[in-house]
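Structure (tokenized):
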């Protein structure tokens, strides 16, 4: 029987023995296994994936003998029976390897003999993870050609869907009526309401068709017409921008503007309208500048890499010389890497940052190889057209010269700082000590002092006005300090006093006594703060009254009243309500540099002065510091700094010759240095494998590569490590390979989602083992092959295939029996109803009211806020925006998107968060949405516009106005009871109010 060590955690029990097994009690004999040939392969194939320097689960690292033996009882040389890791895999159901098959009996015996023989391990021998990658997962398997089921459907999509319905005992609904179909088509492909004339023309053609084939042709003609419209790209670009985390500010705390982000948005719209081959669309967004030199889209597409949030403070104010800046850059690359693989590959590669992926075949090395791919680019403005190759080269030379000078400028500053720090460290330390011990101030503002008096019992007072009744928890009174007098600490503190509060400035009514020394003399508090507990009720005024004054030593002929500081604190002791508030007094000493009423509430005081030299020493030290610093900044150095500034100014003036309006915020390796991160000029920064994701524990330097997620895919790229452009080009080729099953399944899944409202695989950014399985895997592969093998790799063609199916045209009618089996409509027995997206709702308000400026496409984004620019961070004030401003009456896709302060109305209506890749939007129903759709200023303004439109169209009777309004807003005629109710409402409240009612109907807000 094997004895279990007494103190072991359950976690350690599970993970310490991932690779070995022992048949309990079995005594074995035979030759000692050779470590290199027989033991190391077992450990490397089964253990190292979890027990390495990066993971070291259970505090066990098996990379070397030295590290393995640091664990007290995992491997006990000569005693296999006492080796804990052996014990853990014994028995009929061994716990380890945790994510793999148990070791064979032969492997177990080899390991046991090896340990019993002393666990000999050649000195210096390092083991590495050689566990085979488990590619046995639906998304990683090759995409196989799918045979369309022969069930008489007549359309491949219907054939796959109907077969699944039959397997699950579901019946499909009928076809929706032509008006519903046309409204559905218009919103799904353009995001806009159809005009009544187009609806009528389609309904007439559809109803006049002699048979189903003619109805199909009428439908297909409308599909083709709308797919060819510019509105298609504007609608579907929003889908892409959601996953591309596009916005026009940096995010984080300062959230500064990106005035040149909009060209990427226009690029996406243009690419979709031109039906750019999907493979090229992918390549342009990863390495377009390399693969398509001289073509504007090859540079604009790189806006994808730069579209996400960017830490201004970490990059601009901190920089790569400091750890916080290095962390900012690491997270910046992580954001690029994560988005590329989430969007194009539906793969959560970011989960391997600190350890090998727990579920998917992605190692830490794979993750950091991807970092090496992006190690040479930053997010910066970049010229994309208007310059010849020669001009671009000349411009780049100027940029390099400017950056070289700026680096020298930074180095001079850093060198001076280092010299000052070295020479002045002692002085600075003493200055800090004085400030720490003696107070927060560096000036001799002692506090308040009243006029000296000849009588000790003369009452004198000071009073603080807090501005409004305030709930205080405590009042703190700091004694004064005056080095000129014998009693320095506690100078002038009253022998007797009282503290009162009131809401009456004259202290006649409602006076509350908070503290009173009564008729007893009190000792001088010296350096101690006098505390007065307060609590409710609230009070506006605080008054401290001295009733017996101390003598003004060494002058014994008069008496004095003085205080250093008064604070009124909240319950947490953090907020001082008295700071900077008005102070009134019974009287005060003649105007003095050191004694003024306002000094009593200025937050500056010497807390613990022990001798009169503290302030003088502080001033002398500061004077010495200034003198030494000036000596270090010699005239020679100052002259060089001025020369650098002059050279930079001269070169920058030359650079302006190449200024162009054709600038996009994108991935860039060659730019004028504006932050504390310099351009790499194509030379990647070194990237190391970080043990447990910690920048403080770098491992081996990584070369560019990617996870080999399918058979035949490369692990490392055959590129020059010194050329970042080639690495990105290699990644672009990796992503778009024909044998890459992920990229084609991913886009097929997204196109289905953008058409039907939900994806076949329910987690579009994660096809891994923690994601959802596809409901129709054969259909998904059929669609993936369709776009992959299409010579044009056409997204429009794939969308057309889906929309022309009978499945897309089904009604949204309910079926009780179907709902019992498939309440979530996973198998598409009907069409889902859906709410208009936030952008569709806003655009519909504009379109129906007649305010939409549809022809104003592209270009700089419009503001639907008032921009305020204080010193540090811009403010985006949406409530100050005028919804009647015609500049903002463009489609929502052209709205300036802010990260930190999203548009309130659109956010309430489930607009995507632009700081993350949003694969599937939320669709909620809340009271706040109803309030927004009724009360928002945009709704109010467009309701008035809609009412004016009805009046301007010459409609006289209420019935005509109700009918026209219903057809414009709902795409149909009003029912008899709607005509009656809306007509009555129109007569009573006017057309603007009736319009607001229409904008809040379900038939306006929802499709179907």
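Design, position by position:
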């Amino acid at each position: 029987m094997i004895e279990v060590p007494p103190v072991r955690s359950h976690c350690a029990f599970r993970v310490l023995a991932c690779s070995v097994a022992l048949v309990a009690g079995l005594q074995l004999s035979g030759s000692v296994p050779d470590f290199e040939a027989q033991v190391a392969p077992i450990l490397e194939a089964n253990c190292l994936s979890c027990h390495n320097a990066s993971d070291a689960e259970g505090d066990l690292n098996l990379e070397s003998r030295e590290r393995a033996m640091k664990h007290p009882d995992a491997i006990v040389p000569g005693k296999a029976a006492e080796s804990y890791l052996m014990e853990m895999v014994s028995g009929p159901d061994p716990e380890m390897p945790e994510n793999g098959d148990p070791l064979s009996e032969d492997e177990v015996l080899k390991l046991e003999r090896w340990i019993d023989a002393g666990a000999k391990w050649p000195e210096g021998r390092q083991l590495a993870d050689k566990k085979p990658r488990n590619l046995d997962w639906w998304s990683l398997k090759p995409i196989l050609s799918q045979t369309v089921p022969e069930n008489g459907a007549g359309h491949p999509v219907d054939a796959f869907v109907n077969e699944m319905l039959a397997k699950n005992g579901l019946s499909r609904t009928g076809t929706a009526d032509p008006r519903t179909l046309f409204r559905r088509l218009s919103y799904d492909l353009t995001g806009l309401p159809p005009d009544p004339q187009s609806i009528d023309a389609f309904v007439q053609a559809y109803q006049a068709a002699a048979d189903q084939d003619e109805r199909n042709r009428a439908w297909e003609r409308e599909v083709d017409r709308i797919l060819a419209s510019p509105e298609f790209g504007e609608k579907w670009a929003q889908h892409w921008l959601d996953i591309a985390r596009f916005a026009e500010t940096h995010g984080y705390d300062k959230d500064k503007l990106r005035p040149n982000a909009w060209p990427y948005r226009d690029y996406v719209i243009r690419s979709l309208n031109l039906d750019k081959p999907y493979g090229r669309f992918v390549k342009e967004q990863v390495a377009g500048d390399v693969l398509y030199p001289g073509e504007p889209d090859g540079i604009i597409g790189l806006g994808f890499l730069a579209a996400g949030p960017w830490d201004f403070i970490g990059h601009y104010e901190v920089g790569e010389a400091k750890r916080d800046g290095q962390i900012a850059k690491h997270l910046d690359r992580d954001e690029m890497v994560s988005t590329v693989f989430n969007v194009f590959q539906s793969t959560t590669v970011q989960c391997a940052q600190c350890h090998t992926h727990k579920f998917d075949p992605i190692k830490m090395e794979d993750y950091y190889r991807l970092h090496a791919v992006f190690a040479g680019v930053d997010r910066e403005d970049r010229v994309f057209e208007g310059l010849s190759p020669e001009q671009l080269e000349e411009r780049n030379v100027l940029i390099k010269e400017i950056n070289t000078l700026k680096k020298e400028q930074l180095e001079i500053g850093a060198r001076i700082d280092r010299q000052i720090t070295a020479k002045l460290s002692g002085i600075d330390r003493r200055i800090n000590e004085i400030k720490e011990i003696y107070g927060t101030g560096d000036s001799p503002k002692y506090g308040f002092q009243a006029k000296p008096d000849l009588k000790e019992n003369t009452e004198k007072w000071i009073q603080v006005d807090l501005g409004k009744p305030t709930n205080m928890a405590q009042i703190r009174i700091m004694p004064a300090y005056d080095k000129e007098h014998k009693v320095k600490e506690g100078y002038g503190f009253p022998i007797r006093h009282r503290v009162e509060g009131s809401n009456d400035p004259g202290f006649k009514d409602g006076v509350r006594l908070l503290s009173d020394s009564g008729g007893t003399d009190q000792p001088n508090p010296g350096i101690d703060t006098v505390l007065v507990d307060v609590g409710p009720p609230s009070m506006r005024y605080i008054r401290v009254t001295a009733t017996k004054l101390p003598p003004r030593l060494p002058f014994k002929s008069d008496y004095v009243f003085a205080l250093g500081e008064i604070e009124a604190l909240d319950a947490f002791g953090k907020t001082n309500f008295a700071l900077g508030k008005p102070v009134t007094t019974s009287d005060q000493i003649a105007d003095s540099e050191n004694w003024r009423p306002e000094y009593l509430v200025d937050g500056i005081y010497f807390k613990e002065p022990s001798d009169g030299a503290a302030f003088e020493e502080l001033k002398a030290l500061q004077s010495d510091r200034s003198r030494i610093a000036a000596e270090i900044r010699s005239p020679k150095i100052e002259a060089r700094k001025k020369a650098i500034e002059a050279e930079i100014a001269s070169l920058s003036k030359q650079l302006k010759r190449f200024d162009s309006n054709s600038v996009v915020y994108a991935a860039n390796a060659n730019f004028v240095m504006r932050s504390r991160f310099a351009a790499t000029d194509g030379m990647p920064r070194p990237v190391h494998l970080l043990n447990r994701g910690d920048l403080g524990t770098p491992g081996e330097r990584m070369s560019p590569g990617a996870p080999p997620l399918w058979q035949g895919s490369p692990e490392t790229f055959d590129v020059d490590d010194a050329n970042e452009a080639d690495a990105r080009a290699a990644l672009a080729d990796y992503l778009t390979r024909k044998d890459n099953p992920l990229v084609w399944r991913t886009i097929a899944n997204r196109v289905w989602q953008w058409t039907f409202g939900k994806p076949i695989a329910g987690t579009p950014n994660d096809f891994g083992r923690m994601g959802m399985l596809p409901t129709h895997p054969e259909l998904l592969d059929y669609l993936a092959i369709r776009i992959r093998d299409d010579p044009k790799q056409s997204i429009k063609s794939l969308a057309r295939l889906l929309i022309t199916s009978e499945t897309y045209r089904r009604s949204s009618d309910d079926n009780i029996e179907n709902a019992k089996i498939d309440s979530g409509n996973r198998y598409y027995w009907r069409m889902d109803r859906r709410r208009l997206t936030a952008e569709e709702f806003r655009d519909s308000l504009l379109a129906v009211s007649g305010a939409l400026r549809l022809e104003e496409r592209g270009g700089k984004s419009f503001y639907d806020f008032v921009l305020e620019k204080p010193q540090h961070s811009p403010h985006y004030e949406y409530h100050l925006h005028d919804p009647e401003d015609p500049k903002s009456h463009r489609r929502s896709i052209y709205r300036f998107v802010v990260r930190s302060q999203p548009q309130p109305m659109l956010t309430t209506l489930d607009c995507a968060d632009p700081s993350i890749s949003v694969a599937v939007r939320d669709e909620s129903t809340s009271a706040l949405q109803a309030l927004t759709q009724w009360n928002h200023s945009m709704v109010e303004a467009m309701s008035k516009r809609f009412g004016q439109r009805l009046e301007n169209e010459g409609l006289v009777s209420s019935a005509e106005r109700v009918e026209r309004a219903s057809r414009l807003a709902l795409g149909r005629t009003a029912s008899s009871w709607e005509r009656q109710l809306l007509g009555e409402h129109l007569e009573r409240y006017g057309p603007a109010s009736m319009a607001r009612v229409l904008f809040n109907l379900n038939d306006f807000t929802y499709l179907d």
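Reviewer-requested clarification: The chain has 33 helices and 20 strands. Confidence is low (pLDDT under 50) at residues 1-29, 439-444, 607-612.
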